[in-house]
Amino acid sequence: MPTDAHDLRHHGDAEVRDDGAALVDLAVNVRADTPPAWLREVIADSLGGLAAYPDGRRARAAVAARHGVGVERVLLTAGAAEAFVLLARSLKVRHPVVVHPQFTEPEAALRDAGHSVDRVLLREEDGFRLDAAAVPEDADLVVIGNPTNPTSVLHPAAAVARLARPGRTLVVDEAFMDAVPGEREALAGRTDVPGLVVLRSLTKTWGLAGLRVGYVLAAPETVADLERAQPLWPVSTPALAATEACVGPRALAEAAHAAHRVAADRAHLVAGLSRITGLRVVEPAEGPFVLVRLPRAADVRRRLRDLGFAVRRGDTFPGLGGEWLRLAVRDRATADSFLRALERAVASADG
After folding, report:
1. CB–CB of 298/313 below 8 Å?
2. Model-level pTM?
């Protein structure tokens, strides 16, 4: 089990938790200006049913229909984070492996459940691309993000699927896949990959981090195992209403439009970053965030806070060090203001 000093429980919200109102937030990967008014109305309308216990059947059926699978392959969860805990507590595995750098909660959940976790560290010189040969053949649980947080790398679906083996559970965190135009390289909805478990989150695109909305897509026997580990009524009535709404035709069309807008805004941000001397962007970036490497990143991050901007430190991700920062994609006006502040922060750190 790794015993290094990475803080696996540090997340982007910590960058803005205390004085976030005074900062422009580029630390948290939740789409700005969300939830939209129509979704807030759906959630508000659900409050009239709070006296009754939550009934997830309609939301579960809606998720199943959205991905073209049977309801027995769907488990609704209080965000993707709950799914990691359920997997860690329910699966009987001997050799779990987490592919890093990636979201740290899967490893934290596994370690909390008493598992000894091996890490596969993807390399900067390879563009943090998946190296399937680096995954031990005897691993019976493999966890990978796609697109990966924080690298913004989108792995080919075929390459990820090739990690599947008889007797192995392959967990693919697709929390940011709906921010990819066309959701290309998605494995959600696939039933031909043995041991596949796909996790989805609705909190990022729809701004529902405070409501906790997510789901699991897996074989019926895996869903049943995870469901037995859940408490009764794990997803609230407002969260169920939001889930049903966010997988409907209107929401899917809006999310598709937002994905194209994020791609354009990301390209604008990357172009500006490329003009800053000494800074390197991990490319091609495909998620609603970018990973950058620059000298004295910790000093730059502190100076950015003084200038009114919060960004995500990268040194809490295994495989990264103190010279890395993750930047959420925002609209062009915000990006331009940030780039001016970043140039000042870099110059100040260099001085």
Report:
1. yes
2. 0.93
